[in-house]
Amino acid sequence: MNIHAGNSPASSSLAAPSGIIFTRRKALRSGALLVAGLTVAKAAVAPPRAQRVVIVGGGIGGLCCAYELMERGHDVTLLEASRRTGGHVKTIRDPLPDGLYADVGAEHFTNPGYDDYRRYVEKFDLPVLPWARRQQMYKRIDGRWFTEEQLADKAVLGGFGFNAREIDYIREHGFRELPTLYLAPYLAKFRDEYQPFGVGLDECDHLPLGDVLADAGLSAAAVRFLSAQRSRPNEKPAAGSSALFRIWQAAIVKMRGLPVFKREVFHLKGGNQRLPDAFAERLGERVRRNCEATAIHRGDTSVTVRFKQADAEHTLTADHAVLCVSPLVLPRIQITPAWPEAKAYALQNTSMNMQSRVLLVTRDAFWKEDVPSINLETADPKMYFVCETASEVPGPRRLLMGSGSPAQTPEETIAAFRKFYPGKKPDTIEQCIVHQWWKEEPLAFGCERNPFPFGQLAKIWPHLIEPVGRIHFAGAAYDNLPWGQDAATRSANRVARQIHAS
Ligand SMILES: Cc1cc2nc3c(=O)[nH]c(=O)nc-3n(C[C@H](O)[C@H](O)[C@H](O)COP(=O)(O)OP(=O)(O)OC[C@H]3O[C@@H](n4cnc5c(N)ncnc54)[C@H](O)[C@@H]3O)c2cc1C
After folding, report:
1. Mean pLDDT score of the chain
2. Is residue 65 in contact with ligand 1, taking CB distance under 6 Å?
3. pLDDT tens digit sequence for 395-448
4. Distance 191 CA to ligand 1 centre (A)
5. Is the CB of 474 under 6 A from ligand 1?
6. pTM for the full model?
7. Helix (H, G, I), strand (E, B) or coil at 115
8. 357 lines ligand 1 (CB under 6 A)
9. Where are the alpha helices (DSSP H) in 354-483?
10. Ligand 1 mean position to 485 CA, how many Å?
11. Is 59 in the pocket of ligand 1 (CB under 6 A)?
């Protein structure tokens, strides 16, 4: 389900849906280099005057921004509306049995990728586990299951209707890398990953990808798997994402040297909440829980933030405020004077997706020797992927994880699993948990940004991430790629640098 702050239509994404203890040094070597670079930069630029900064929102974005500002010598207070920090990065143990644990929000990070995120993992010495959830995936297409080997088979690919060039490309690079075959000529045009305009493709903001690739020789299968349908003559394109947006996103991935499909993924042993917890611990009393910001007055020389704590109203005056909450919950905060028009438009028309976390506790690993892999891509909205999590926890009970629609029941989830499960053995499901975010944490609303629809990139970007006077924006919604924890930590660093330099 796509939930919108404004009236913009929902749109689909180009991207495919996504133990031994790994040595942290090896996993994070590139991060260590970044740490070294940052230390030098910080030592060189001491703050001329400590700024007083109020951060609104204690998810990973807000905590990271507060931490970076504190490290640079500024005076920060972080207001978090709920009684816990971490927002969408949340690990649960209760009511799971046998020491099992699960991330009900952000489940993984990648390497390469997630540079800022991994820098903190290294710095705080958090234990990393590689996660095989994207290895040997078993994918359901049109109700049939395919192994990765089958999806590289000439006859299977021909059966889908791919042409000879596409088949050769897929066989060489993999099924999920197909977008690069057609987008490659456009990607090299981009120079600055935060600037999609001015590279000769501005018009593509108003077109679907199919129109831009009209003469590229796509087969019907490529049109389908790339969601590259063309518009009809004399008809405005139906709802969908802007071709410029899609090309730009692919260009950023290329600029960062990442594959289209990030197969090497990791999580923190004991749960990803360990990172926000590490920030919160270091910030200490600067973090104020149960404090919901309700109004912000933006003045020329200061910002005043009103907040509620135990039904009493308080105010804080600061040099800067950083809003680290989803655009979907921002309307709950009264802003005076109102946002400038371009900012208001960008915030109101940014849509975010919502998903529930689905967990199945099983008596044993019933799927072993029954299916080629339990890394399932199901195409079922009630559990559109399945994988095993917390596999390092000893004992016969196992934990399967997936993502579902924002509101669904455990009974519906089990029924969906039993319908799509490709094996022959009966399952041994003992317990099903559905973590519905909108119910459990109503102010952590909207988890990752949806693609920008036709004609909207120019209206929304870069206004979405730009500061308004002394008010700045950080968090998953406010960076160029909508990759949860990566976007949150990147934008947090960007804002901390801006405030420090001011
Ligand atoms: C099921 C699921 C799977 C995901 N998988 C991944 C993944 O594998 N990898 C990845 O990187 N990301 C993933 N994500 C996305 C990622 O978790 C989020 O994008 C990221 O954690 C958002 O962080 P944030 O700090 O921007 O915002 P949030 O986590 O939403 O934090 C915002 C905080 O602000 C608080 N708040 C709101 N309003 C106010 C107010 N008025 N005053 C004070 N506080 C307020 C909220 O209570 C909340 O704590 C997933 C998310 C979900 C739900």
Report:
1. 90
2. no
3. 999 999 999 999 999 999 999 999 999 999 999 999 999 999 999 998 888 889
4. 30
5. no
6. 0.90
7. helix
8. yes
9. 410-420, 437-440, 457-460
10. 8
11. yes
